[in-house]
Structures are given as C-alpha cells and as structure tokens.
Amino acid sequence: MAMLLRKVWGSVLARAAAAAGLPGGQAAAAPGSPRGRRAQQQGAGAEQYYCGVALSLGALDALPTDVLAQILRLLGPVDAARSATVCRAWRILASDNGLWAFFLRLGPEPWDLVVFAETHLAAGPDWHPWLYYNNLPQLSFKQIYTDRAMVPGTVIVDGGSGYCKYGWSKYAAPSGCCATFLEFGNIESPMYARLRHFFSTIYTRMQVKPSSQPVIVVLPLCHTDDTESARASRKQYKETLYSVLFDMNVPAVCAVDQAVLSLYASKRTSGIVVHIGFNTTSIVPIFEGRVMYEIGVETVGQGALKLTGFLKELMHQRNITCESLYTVRTIKEKLCYVAADYEAELRKDTQASCEVDGEGWFTLSEERFKTAEVLFQPHMGGMRAMGLHKAVSLCMDHCYNSDVVGDDSWYRTVVLAGGSSCLPGLPERLEKELRQLLPPYISEGIRVLPPSFGTDSAWFGAKMVSNVSTFTEAWCVKKKQFRQKTRRNGPLFVNAW
C-alpha cells in the first residue's frame, strides 16, 4: 500500500510540474473524466472549474472520485493540503468537508466535543445565538483543522474548592494538583500577594515561564449573591487576577466560571449546574454561558467534607476505626452510593468490602448509602439545611418565573459537577425527587446528567475552550487591552470579561 501511494503521489506531483511549464500553467482535462464531471456539478461554487477545464492527470483520470478521496485520507492532512496546489480538481477533493472531518476525528479530541466547541464556543463568551435565526454556522472543517493546529498550548489552572488542578491544554488530563489559592500565604495578606504566590508555585511546578504561554483560569464559585457587595467582590477578585498574571508577563489570560465550564464539558451552554464542592453545594442557573445571578444561585451548607465526616461517624459507631480522612474519603469513593429508595434499601443486604493501600480491608453495610442520604436528609447528619432536591427545585421554580428570553426549557437540564457528584445513583435519585416535588408544567422533560469527565469536568471544559480555533482572539484578554481599558474605563471594565 505504501509503495502504491508513493507511485500515485509521485505521478500527481510529476503532472503538476509538467503543467507548470505549459502556457498559463493549465492543461485541458480529459473529456468525460471523473474530475471533469465533478467540476460541472460544482455549479457557481468558489472551487468550481473555470469553463469546465482542469488539469489532466493522465491514467489517474480513470480512477473514481471516491478512490481519489480515499488516497487523500491515507496520505494524511499535510499531503492532502499540498495536493490542493496541483490543479482545481485536486483542490476540490482536498477541500471536501468530509475529508477534513475525517482528519479531525483522528485527532486527540473527541469528535462530538470538537463540533460543539466550534459551533457554540468559537465566537467567544459574549455571543448570544438566540439573537439570530441561524445559530449554527456552516463549518469549514479544513479551516478549523488548520486553526486548531495553530492554537498554542495553554496552561490550565482549575482553582477548585478543595484543591487546585493544573496542566497543559494539549494533555489528556491534569498533570498535577496543589492547595487552592485561599490556602497560600497568610490569610490576612492582601489578595494580590496570595495570588502571586499561588501562580508562582504552579509555574514553578510546571517548569514553564509565565511569558511563554496563555493561561486559562477556572474561577471558583464565590460571592454568589446578586447584591452590590457580592458583585464588587467578584469584580475585585477578577481584576486582581488579571493584574497578577499580567505583572508576571503572561501574554494572554482567559478566566471563566467553574460552573460554566462544567456545563460546557457536557456539551451544553444552558442549564442548571449542581456543583458539590468541598464545603458547600451550589445550584447555579446558567443561560447561554452566563451565570444568572439575578435569578439566584442556591447554596446548601454541606459538601464533600461533610459526607466524608459523616461516613467517619457511621464507621465509628460500628467500631471501625480510621484516623485519616483521606482513607475515609477513599472508602467513600469505592463503596458508597445513593439509594433510589432509602426505606427500601434499609431492608436489603448491602454489605461490601474494599481494600485501601496501606490500611487493609474495610467492610461496610448500611453506611454505604446512609452517607450520601445526608444530601437529601441533612438532619441525619445533624444539619439544619435544605435538602439537595429542594434546593434544585427552588432554583427551577425561580427560572420558570424569570424573564429570560429564549427556549423556556433551558433550565430542565441539570448537570452534576464536583467529586462527590460521581456517587453512583445520584442522577437517578435527584431526577426522581424533582419529578415528585415539582408540578408537571415544570418537571416535564427534566434530565439530570452525571459529570461528563468525573471529578475533572471543569478542567476538561477549560481544555475544550482553550483548544477552540478562535481561542486567543475570542476568549483571551491581552496585556495591552488590559492596560488600555484600565486607563480608559477604570476598574469597572472587568465586568465585560
């Protein structure tokens, strides 16, 4: 096969070189050749033949068009692009959308994520598709392939709520983790100093100069109220973030909310994200990539740490001793689940065991599902808080009564995020509880989706954004832009990004 392709490609290049010596650089096409027929079918397209003539490829004219297309697939994207310079016939074949879609499918990114990113994210965070009748532009996969190949590798920093994950946008997963910026430096130190220490540590660990690559920062959920004070706090944090990174000579910065990126990872731009964080659980309504603070972000005062602590209490009641919370967390991840029906689950034999490296074997029974039940019945853990299903239903009710323009079913998709949201059975249980709580005109069509990438959904959402073909132009703030807008508009400019 390799020898055949070399002969074919050598013949193509030879014919192209011969054509270069002809007057006008063109030669007549063989009458009735497949390329001649294909040229006539192109109509008035940009790649049509001029007067129906094209370069003849000699004996290759007898090959069907689909065989030539298969040859281009086997040659690969580089040689396929080179073939476009041979003649108009090859240019049409080499520009075929299906060919470049094939090459994109062979790439490291899942095909469905590439299509979603290029249709919904390429225009940047301020694009509002409901303003247009046709919100899915015609894609040129050849141009997308070329542009994505030119996008530089980006440093991704996922601030997180329990710990930070960082890595390269071209890698398959985060390359490391560390404490969040809140744990850096003295708590009484200025935010600028703590952020500077935080990012300096990450760049040191990644062994990269800040000036060499753009950075995308995943903003943790904080100050979620729709008040002047909360808006000022969010603005101050974002403004300080840009100042720190540009003072470190980072060439371009993109900062996106954690919940928004988790939603992107599920291939959606609108919905409700239920983020079970380290200390709290946030229910975040998002419409076309924007957090709807005016509708209301619900916060429940329990998160992953509470679940782990509750499991430790249950284990202690059965004289199962374990001093390390890390070990308890490992047991939770291996054995715990969410019961579809709590009362029915109490009557079942649910005993199971797991091994923790360096700690031995642990056997649990009712503790396996009682741990997660505290999400729906907080009083079991001694908490006076709203159950998860009630908080989500309250958010949905607020969305239903809001004045959002567009599809009125946008809030019926619930996307789970955060490490503890990976517990088996949680999507099904939450969906069941919501259907029982909400009236039919709200609950009809509700779907609760598990995290698309497990504990790393926000990181993969950032990876999706940082690899989009228009990333640096549509999503990033440059240092010059930052300085100019600071001088012109003052600190309030940050609200635009």
UniProtKB/TrEMBL annotation:
Pfam assignment, any one: F-box-like
Annotated keywords: Signal
Entry-linked SUPFAM superfamilies: Actin-like ATPase domain, F-box domain
Alphabetized InterPro entries for the sequence: Actin, ATPase_NBD, F-box-like_dom_sf, F-box_dom
Leader sequence segment: 1-19
Stretches assigned to the F-box domain: 57-103
Similarity remark: Belongs to the actin family.
Protein name: F-box domain-containing protein
Species name: Digitaria exilis
Lineage of source species: Eukaryota, Viridiplantae, Streptophyta, Embryophyta, Tracheophyta
